[in-house]
């Protein structure tokens, strides 16, 4: 007879009902727990036998739901740090570590949290003006107007670029890094401008002013441990106030004209002075050369005269005749005059070759050979007597000169 037939013992072979020595039924345990919880929270006593035996077990569902919730809560602890960023992990608000780029996990909130900081981004602030993309574009006089050392107002516009060098200090040490940096920049800028003159700020001192401002900003931010690195400071504009710009422009033009004239004068001076110095040096060198030449000639003449005098002392007649012949040779070598001494005669014939020879063309050099080219036509017979004509006075003068020569001999 089966257990569920009429007249059977009604004992379930799987649940163990009716067996007092067997393990308790799971449904009975769940119903008992439900009754106890109902009593604990003020629920009335309900008949345990009236419950549906096929209801799902509440304890198992609660465990499954708790496991799923813990799993989902653990998944929220995964995070990704992009390239160029740093992750700053905190546990209950206290710093724990810095993570680099990649996939990481931390205890989910509210136990641990992570702040992602871009350490490669170029950030910037504007002092004295706002760019066109901002809500208030244009000049900000409250920030731009500054007093110089010589008690003049200047309108200065500055742009500062920076990036994060330490993510931990950037998050924990300063509440508002951008506002703090802007206040520090204004303070450093006013200090540097206030110690400089207006002309220095507007003209040649711009690069030096930018360097000083950048150094002072970095020193102050480092003293705050802000984790900020100043990359560049750009002086966008520096000019006098708008009310006096026209007068200041005229002054600048006058200064530029003055500088232009000075440059032109210096250029002219640089052109003339070297030439004058060169000419003077050339004159000095020529004078020194002439001096050396005269001295050398004088010394040579004196030396020659001393040697000649020594020879003259030994043979006066021979030396005197030799000197005379040399002198006459030197004189007559430069002329066209030829003296012909006829043997046994008393007179010396004078031949004026310059009159006898045909005239040379103008293009022919004076010292060229007067011999006629064989290809050229012969001179006309009419020209020969004119060239060979002898002046009567010239013959007399030559005759007397020949007599003088013969008398000296």
TrEMBL record:
Residues 364-376 have a biased composition (Polar residues). Keywords: Hydrolase, Membrane, Protease, Transmembrane, Transmembrane helix. Residues 7-29, 390-409 have a biased composition (Basic and acidic residues). Belongs to the band 7/mec-2 family. HflK subfamily. HflC and HflK could encode or regulate a protease. HflC and HflK may interact to form a multimeric complex. This is Protein HflK.
């Amino acid at each position: 007879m089966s257990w569920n037939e009429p007249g059977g013992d009604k004992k379930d072979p799987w649940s163990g009902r009716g067996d007092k020595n067997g393990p308790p039924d799971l449904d009975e345990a769940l119903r008992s727990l439900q009754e106890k919880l109902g009593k604990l929270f003020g629920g009335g006593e309900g008949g345990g036998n009236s419950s549906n035996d096929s209801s799902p077990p509440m304890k198992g569902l609660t465990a499954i739901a708790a496991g799923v919730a813990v799993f989902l809560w653990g998944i929220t602890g995964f995070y990704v740090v992009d390239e160029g960023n740093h992750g700053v992990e905190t546990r209950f608000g206290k710093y724990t570590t810095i993570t680099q780029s990649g996939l990481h996990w931390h205890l989910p909130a509210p136990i641990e949290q992570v702040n992602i900081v871009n350490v490669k981004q170029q950030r910037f602030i504007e002092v004295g003006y706002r760019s066109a993309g901002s809500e208030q574009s244009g000049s900000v006089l409250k920030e731009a107007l500054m007093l110089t050392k010589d008690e003049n107002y200047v309108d200065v516009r500055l742009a500062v670029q920076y990036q994060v060098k330490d993510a931990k200090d950037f998050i924990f040490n300063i509440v508002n890094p951008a506002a703090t940096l802007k206040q520090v920049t204004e303070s450093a800028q006013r200090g540097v401008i206030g110690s400089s003159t207006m002309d220095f700020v507007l003209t040649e001192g711009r690069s030096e002013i930018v360097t000083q401002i950048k150094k002072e900003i970095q020193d102050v931010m480092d003293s705050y441990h802000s984790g900020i690195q100043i990359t560049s400071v750009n002086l966008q504009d520096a000019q006098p106030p708008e009310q006096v710009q026209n007068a200041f422009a005229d002054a600048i033009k006058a200064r530029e004209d003055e500088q232009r004239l000075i440059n032109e004068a210096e250029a002219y001076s640089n052109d003339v002075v070297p030439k004058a110095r060169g000419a003077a040096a050339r004159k000095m060198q020529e004078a020194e050369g002439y001096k050396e030449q005269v001295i050398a000639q004088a010394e040579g003449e004196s030396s020659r005269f001393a040697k000649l005098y020594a020879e003259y002392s030994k043979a006066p007649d021979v030396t005197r005749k030799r000197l005379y012949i040399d002198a006459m040779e030197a004189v007559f070598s430069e002329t066209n005059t030829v003296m012909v001494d006829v043997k046994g005669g008393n007179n010396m014939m004078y031949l004026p070759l310059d009159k006898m020879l045909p005239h040379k063309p103008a293009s022919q050099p004076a010292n060229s050979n007067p011999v006629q080219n064989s290809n050229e036509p012969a001179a006309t017979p009419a020209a020969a007597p004119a060239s060979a004509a002898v002046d009567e006075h010239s013959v007399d003068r030559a005759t007397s000169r020949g007599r003088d020569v013969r008398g000296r001999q």
